[in-house]
Amino acid sequence: MILYALRCECGHEFDQWFDNMADYDAKKASGLNCPSCGGTSVSKAIMAPRVGKAQAAPAPMHACNPVGCGNSMCPMAQMA
Ligand SMILES: [Zn+2]
Question: Number of structural domains, the chain?
């Protein structure tokens, strides 16, 4: 997962997650929308992409167990 900082033609900046660069290209081709104004002239803001990593925000509660957890960020999965 890659977090891109995007900017619309009005100057609104927002972040959006993409699976990878190809996913970004595909979504851009099919039309990215600014969440503030709905504008479709959206491009990457000049900023190094942040590669997906566990954010400091608390993870949502989920039924996790060492065998069935598919979340690679999950501490339980790392202990398995
Ligand atoms: Zn906008």
Answer: 1
Per-residue confidence (pLDDT) for residue 55, from 0 to 100: 59
Domain around 15:
2-44
What is the 80 CA–ligand 1 centroid distance (Å)?
A: 44
The verdict on residue 9 lying in a domain is: yes
Q: What is the pLDDT of residues 16-55, one digit of tens each?
A: 999 999 999 999 999 899 999 999 999 998 655 566 665 5
What DSSP letter does each residue of 13-52 carry, written as one string? EEEEEESSHHHHHHHHHH----TTT--S-EEE-SSPPEEP
Distance (angstroms) between ligand 1 centre and the Cα of 61 equals: 33
* Interval between CA 5 and ligand 1 midpoint (Å): 13
